[in-house]
Amino acid sequence: MAAPTQDRDARFAILMDGDLTPTDRLRSQVAGARVIAADGGMRHAAALDLEPEVWVGDFDSTPDDLLGRNGHVPRQDHPARKAVSDGELAVMRALDAGARSLVLCGAMGGPRSDHMLFHIMMALRLTGERDIKVLLTSGTEEAMPLLPGEPAMPDWPAGTLFSVIPFSPLSRLTIEGADWPLDAVEVAMGSSLTLSNVSAEGLRILLGSGTAALVASFDV
């Protein structure tokens, strides 16, 4: 199958096989995006009213009814024994098509916490090395990379519970517009200092050096 041509729409939604709650917020985040499904993530397409342009995976455990309902979607088949996950294959397909922004739907929840951790680490790598904007979401939780440079200003409603998860020692971390603000503090890797904060108006988070992820939880 030929790779899709690049165009001006550089925003992609990747449907992954984790848990997903189809909230209005999530629907607005994927509205107008190009869509790629990763194996069992196809099950989320109908709930989000999305039509994937391609379905990527090894399909070794995909239910027959899901295959039957979506037989019209072009498939990119891969062997079950491979060096990358179905989700990463879908992301690679989007990047080959010119993606500059990714919404990884179903990347936060499910029975495999190792997959969730990988998705966060992949997002950190893509943002740090390729300047790709990445949002991970289950509908009820979101995560995004926090790297040095431009401040993060998430559009979370006031009262949103959020944490800054350090993946390295953090230097000069500043949090404004939150119940527990911080001013250019040092945070050790593994510290709980930045666990369970609450957003207020004008949330702004700035990191001097280090690598972290922002994780937010929503009441639905």
In short:
The chain is built from four helices and twelve strands. By secondary structure, the protein is α/β, with parallel strands linked by helices.
Describe the structure.
By secondary structure, this protein is of the alpha/beta class. The chain has two domains: 11-140, Rossmann fold; 161-217, no CATH class. It has four helices and twelve strands. The model is unreliable at 1-8 (pLDDT under 50).
Helix and strand content put the structural class at alpha/beta
Helix content: 10-25%
Q: If you compute it from the alpha carbons, what radius of gyration comes out, rounded to the nearest whole angstrom?
A: 18 Å
Order of helices and strands: EHEEHEHEHEEEEEEE
* Main pleated sheet: 12 strands, mixed
CATH architecture of the largest domain: 3-Layer(aba) Sandwich
Low-confidence stretches: 1-8
CATH level-3 fold name of the largest domain: Rossmann fold
CATH structural class of the largest domain:
Alpha Beta
The total domain count is: 2
Shape: elongated
What is the CATH superfamily of the largest domain?
Thiamin pyrophosphokinase, catalytic domain
Average pLDDT number: 91
List the main descriptive attributes of the protein structure presented here.
twelve-stranded mixed beta sheet; 12 strands; alpha/beta; single chain; 220 residues; Rossmann fold
Strands, helices and their partners?
Elements: E1 11-15, H1 24-30, E2 34-38, E3 54-57, H2 64-69, E4 75-77, H3 86-96, E5 101-105, H4 113-130, E6 133-137, E7 141-146, E8 161-166, E9 170-178, E10 182-187, E11 197-206, E12 212-217
Parallel strand pairs: 1-2, 1-5, 2-3, 3-4, 5-6
Antiparallel strand pairs: 6-7, 7-12, 8-11, 8-12, 9-10, 9-11
